[in-house]
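seq:
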Amino acid sequence: MKKGLLLIDRGSREREASEELEVICKEIKSKGDYVFTDFCFLEVEPPYIEDGIKKCLKQEIESLTIVPYFLYPGKKVKNAVTDVMKFQKDTKVKFVVTKPMSMHKTLIELVRNRISASLQENNVTIPEKDVDVLIIGHGSKDPNAQMSLNYVVDGLKTDYRNVNRCWLEIEQPDIFEGIKTCEKNNPKVLVIVFYFLHEGAHVKTDINNDLLPALKESSIKNVCITRHLGADQKMIDLIIERAREVEDAD
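struct:
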């Protein structure tokens, strides 16, 4: 069967987001069994879902695997799935929809790798079990978002001295409260993880607008900041695994 794959991302005006998605789609096509791979956006910037679906349906495919490329389940994912399935009735191409990129051990491994890389880049030589970690997520009104990030936090707790999480917006604790909590633990080294898929405006600007003043007010001296999750091979493998879950079940 000739298969296509379409990633649905939230959307970003930053050039880096599209560039990362292009890399991911190219790698998925190379590693997976797809004749066509592409991406589209739920909001913010074209190509939107309608554009993405129309482009896919012009290809010679018999089935289309649709991947909600989100770190948290919730309203955005539901909206993406609802929007895309509107087009199923008008085509003979079979649509299958995967789970989002949440609640999976690969995310724990990916964050662990980001932490190790940041420590190495900053020439930190203390044992990782003596390192404190703060993970910054986006924030969502959906309770499943907290559950998803807590899954990652809990999966890392045996590896580091302390692991906490906070949110850029919407939820509490916010970044200022997150830094205060870490400060109380008197960390030798604090690694701050940007738990975001892309190097968009949140990573480039919004986080630092709160993080830099919070760190300046704190007594924490040694801080390392990781890269965002990005176009990592582990993430690409996770997308393919999520796709195969629904393809094999179909």
